[in-house]
Design goal:
single chain; about 90 residues; mainly alpha; 4 helices; about 0% strand; elongated
């Protein structure tokens, strides 16, 4: 019986150490937000290149991944507060 308790305590201790190490190292954190695909030719997000008349509108277009950037580009509209931007979401 004591051997079983000792084994359970040791297992719990080892599991706690492993979980603590995972938390300290940033396990499961999202990397910094950036475009998922960048053009090797001009360094621009590929999503921009899919715009109609890309050459004419690229200077006036805005690329982003966060709600705050979109709000600053189009104005602070109430509907923007309803939008969610999970990791990987991009807009132009």
């Amino acid at each position: 019986m004591n051997r079983l308790k000792l084994k359970a305590i040791c297992s719990s201790f080892i599991l706690s150490i492993l979980l603590a190490c995972g938390c300290v190292t940033g396990f499961g954190q999202e990397p910094g937000r950036k475009s998922q695909e960048i053009s090797e030719v001009d360094g621009q997000p590929v999503l921009l290149q899919h715009l109609p008349e890309y050459e004419n509108v690229r200077a006036s277009s805005t690329f982003g991944t966060e709600n705050s950037t979109l709000a600053s580009a189009v104005g602070d509209h109430a509907v923007l507060k309803l939008l969610e931007f999970p990791f990987g979401t991009e807009y132009v």
